[in-house]
Design goal:
The chain has ten helices and no strands. With about 200 residues, it is mainly alpha-helical.
Length: about 200
Amino acid sequence: MTEIFAVALFTLLAVISPGADFAMVTRCSYAQGRIAGLAAAVGIGLGVQVHVMYTVLGLSIIVTQSPTLFLCMKAIGACYLLYLGYRSLTNTVRVRLDDKGAAGGALQALRTGFLTNCLNPKTMLFVISAFSQVVEQGSPLWLNLAYGAFMSLAHWAWFSLVAVFFSNSVLRKAMIERQIIADRVIGVALIALGLMVAMSSVG
């Protein structure tokens, strides 16, 4: 019971801490609408499972014991954050409140959410730390997979709430009216996160 509580608390703190996932879902929600925001949340939940799978299967040992591989993964993640930030910072497409989230937009948002989380060193370190420091060694596979499922569901639930909040018509209208400012703020935030990851990789 203590282990379950520890995993739940560890996951909650990791999920609600601001980061690239939050910035990306926020932009998808206000710029493309609720469907896109919720799709991005699903993508994030699926992305968490990638980290869970390689951790549970023991591949995390290779990552943590190979500085070069770990550095490459962080560098890729940093570059992706910089790319997303640059796109938001230089975006010239103006959206309208009556824009509907098309199926293609939802699919793109899901893919962006998935890649953002998959390439996020923060999530990688969170999952590895959870299984190495909180979960007892030798735990049965089914329990590890259950913890992993909980982590994914927690991410999906939280970012779904974020999507619903920022796609609210009143808030969305206010942000769309200030789209240039909102895009610049989100772009700068993503670039800053990317630079932080890149600098930590160099260090």
